[in-house]
Amino acid sequence: MEGTIAEKMGRFVAGLSYDNLPEEVIQKAKCCMINGIAIGISCHSVEFGRMARDLIKAEELGIPAEKGATLFCDGAKVTPMGAAFANAALFHGRAQEDTLGSSHTGTVISPAVLALAERDGYTGKQVLEAVIAGYEIVGALDRAVSGYTTPRGFRASPIFGIFGSASAAGKLLGLSEEETIKAIGFAAAFAGGTLECFAAGTMEWRFEVGVASREGILAALLAKQGAVSAPTAMEGDAGFLRAFADTTEGSESISRDLGKTWSIMSTGFKPYPVCAFNQTPVRIILGILEENDISHEDIEKVVVSVNPYEYHYAGMANRGPFDSVGATLMSTPFCAALALVDGQTTLDGLTRYDDPRIEDLINKTEHIPEDGIGRYCGAVTVRTKDGNTFEKEAKEGPEFYNFDMQQTIELAGRVTAETGVSPDKVDGLIDMIGKLDALPNVSELVKRLGSCP
Hints:
This protein has 453 residues and is an alpha+beta fold. The chain has 2 domains: 5-269 and 402-449, 2-methylcitrate dehydratase PrpD, CATH 1.10.4100; 276-398, CATH 3.30.1330.120. 52% of the residues lie in helices and 7% in strands. The chain has a 4-stranded mixed sheet. The protein is globular. The termini are far apart. The model has no long low-confidence stretch (mean pLDDT 96).
């Protein structure tokens, strides 16, 4: 495939057709949408989603219904870009969204696609086609570039997610190949998002995905209007790769496997409302507790061993003091201690910043990086005061979290039940997404999403 990176990606997106997609790819896209929507409506009372909704309503209320898009868990009509921003923040409220590499792709792409599809009346097949296009572009970028960008302090979800949103929006809008290439060029220029908020425990990350979702739509709309972006927006001397990765090494691999290896098939889901890199330590600990009768009061020492990349990710080694969920869900020592105290990990548990039992266990926890441990793998040792030692490791890696449809539905049911969402509502949404490719539009779907719980 000849041309610049933007040209290759644009050619792939413009040429993508629902009719040529493998059935397993379509089913995975439905899983991603079920997971994203279930997690999203479970955040109906989370403050970050409310902040985003209130902001957009204050600025945009009064949009004619036929020209607007719905704010989920609210029902107000705003612009598609406003809805994409607020709904993305909602989807990110529990930090339990899907993960593709290092990117929380569904939080960015699905809100953008549903906002445009609602306003313009696109079919369910077109929605799925657009969602898949977006995931493939994000997956290609994350796989090739995140190893360079993350250590420099850039967050994968927004800096790659905007390309997914722009690609998905462009697909829905029916952009030509040339226009799609320009939309990707604008995404390269508009991308942004850093990791310092995780170290500080502050809120920027809650809204970064909303900005990426909104700005991706803007990139596509600009291209549709005839605006021109740099063909070398990615690999140019002052382009995206030099700015964010400080290298163009490996850039030829970004588009090499598009349409050959389907990135969306590698998307994983989170059983617990904590950072993706804390899923495995929590899972191991809960397994130890399930197999052994251990009280947190009897614990003398805990050792949590993880992959070095995950250990050094911003916020992971934080030992407190804590004053926000944004800090606790990132902290491996806190998440491990919470799991040991409660025998479960819930969003409410993450707010117990001053629990002396958790503080005691954090002080007894050694959190270490080990070169021999793979991504999304780990090992935990718990030693009790009577001299007993309990050890368990997980070697499955990211594949463990690559849920099938039944696992996705079970996770959706568990999370929505925890947050008081009506089971009938959840069942109806799952059924509708399962039949999405037969729907003439998404109006009934977004109508149901407009009211929660």
